[in-house]
């Protein structure tokens, strides 16, 4: 019943259990129902019943069984492939949940930690060998935090969502990315006013630069992108320019594209963000190490 007392509509999603998927994969891997039963530690009759219940739930035949062999149907092959991925994810989940969180996934949208990325990885491995570090690129506003893809996220603009907490670990200069043959490329640095009449390529979801960085009346025209490779390719043509954190210049060097400091633009704060009510045990250690790296210059 719903909150108004009405009968809830029945779900159209089949009720599939992990034991059914394990049974299907075991039959395919072992080659016979008998061997699958031995591998699973159950009776052959239980294997047959479990497979039959899975086929009823899905409404399709998954295996062809003859006196000599058991082979997947075309649909069965696709289901087995998906089942392997699902079971692998579940095994990872159980392993992580029961091992005291020995993995730290750090998400980022475009450029991770720039010139500090490699140093951070190596120092982390040296000082925290018990906690595996993984960098994960997710081009979203929270760099994968809201999506559950990471435990900590490197973000370069404040998160308004109260579900998250963050700490500033460093500052980065703003750089202008332009075609190598752009007249401005001959300069050692540029000003915001030099870019006012240009077309600025921005990523509104994750980027740090908008037209509001310029005073009213001198703002550049903007176009939108959602991918750093697309951003670089467009800039290399000379039709657009970009303004980006210094980390992008270190992590994405591209023939035909040069970076110049924007000397009158405020620096960008680099933050580490995490779930307020579920911080990773290694979060403080990551904050301290990154803060030390950024302070070292």
List the helices and strands and how they pair.
Blueprint: H1 18-30, H2 33-40, H3 44-58, E1 63-65, E2 70-72, H4 74-98, E3 103-108, H5 117-127, E4 132-137, E5 152-155, E6 164-172, E7 174-179, E8 199-202, E9 221-224, H6 228-236, E10 242-245, H7 246-251, E11 257-261, E12 268-275, H8 283-296
Parallel strand pairs: 3-4, 3-5, 8-9
Antiparallel strand pairs: 1-2, 5-12, 6-12, 7-10, 7-11
Helix pairs in contact: 1-2, 1-3, 1-4, 2-3, 5-8
Any overview of this molecule?
- Pfam families: HTH_1 (PF00126), LysR_substrate (PF03466).
- The chain has a five-stranded mixed beta sheet with strand order 4-3-5-12-6, with helices on one face.
- 34% of the residues lie in helices and 21% in strands.
- The chain has 297 residues and is an alpha/beta fold.
- It is elongated, with a radius of gyration of 26 Å.
- Helix 1 crosses helix 4 and helix 5 packs across helix 8 (283-296).
- The termini are far apart.
Short recap of the structure:
The protein is α/β, with parallel strands linked by helices. It has helices at residues 18-30, 33-40, 44-58, 74-98, 117-127, 228-236, 246-251, 283-296; strands spanning 63-65, 70-72, 103-108, 132-137, 152-155, 164-172, 174-179, 199-202, 221-224, 242-245, 257-261, 268-275.
* Low-confidence regions: 1-10
Hey, roughly how much beta strand do the residues contain? 15-25%
What is the ordering of alpha helices and beta strands? HHHEEHEHEEEEEEHEHEEH
First-residue to last-residue Cα separation:
61 Å
* H/I helix tally: 8
Structural class: alpha/beta
Which strand order does the major sheet show? Answer: 4-3-5-12-6
- How many β-strand runs? 12
User: What does the main sheet amount to?
Assistant: 5 strands, mixed
In round numbers, the mean pLDDT is 90
**Gross geometry:** elongated
The whole-angstrom Rg is 26 Å
- Helix fraction bin: 25-40%
């Amino acid at each position: 019943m719903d909150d108004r007392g009405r009968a809830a509509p029945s779900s159209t999603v089949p009720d599939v259990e992990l034991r059914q998927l394990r049974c299907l994969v075991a039959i395919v891997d072992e080659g016979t129902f008998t061997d699958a039963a031995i591998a699973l530690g159950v009776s052959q009759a239980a294997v047959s019943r479990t497979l039959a219940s899975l086929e009823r739930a899905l409404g399709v035949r998954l295996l062809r069984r003859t006196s000599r062999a058991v082979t997947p149907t075309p649909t069965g092959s696709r289901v087995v492939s998906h089942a392997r991925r699902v079971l692998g994810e579940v095994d990872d989940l159980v392993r992580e949940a029961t091992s005291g969180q020995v993995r730290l996934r750090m998400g980022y949208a475009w450029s991770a930690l720039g010139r500090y990325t490699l140093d951070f990885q190596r120092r982390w491995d040296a000082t925290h060998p018990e906690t595996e570090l993984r960098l994960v690129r997710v081009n979203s506003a929270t760099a994968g935090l809201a999506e559950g893809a990471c435990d900590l996220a490197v973000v370069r603009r404040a998160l308004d969502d109260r579900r998250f907490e963050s700490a500033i670990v460093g500052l980065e200069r703003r750089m202008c990315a332009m075609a190598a043959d752009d007249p401005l490329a001959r300069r050692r640095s540029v000003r915001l006013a030099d870019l006012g009449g240009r077309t600025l390529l921005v990523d509104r979801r994750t980027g740090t630069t908008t037209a509001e960085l310029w005073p009213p009346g001198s703002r550049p025209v903007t176009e939108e992108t959602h991918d750093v490779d697309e951003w670089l390719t467009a800039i290399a043509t000379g039709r657009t320019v970009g303004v980006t954190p210094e980390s992008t210049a270190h992590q994405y060097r591209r023939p035909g594209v040069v970076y110049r400091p924007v000397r009158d633009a405020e620096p960008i704060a680099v933050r580490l963000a995490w779930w307020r009510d579920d911080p990773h045990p290694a979060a403080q250690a990551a904050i301290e190490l990154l803060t030390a790296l950024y302070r070292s210059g």
